[in-house]
Amino acid sequence: MGSLRLAASAAAVALAAAVATWPAAAAAGTQSQAQPTATAAQAGANATQAQAQAILRQCATGQLTRSYPAAALQAALREMPASQRQYSPCVDVIEAALAGAGHSGGGGTGGSGGSFLPTPVLVLLVLVVLGGVTAGAVAVRRRQSAGPGGPRGDQPSGGAS
Question: CA dist 107 to 21, 61, 125, Å?
Answer without folding.
Answer: 32, 20, 30
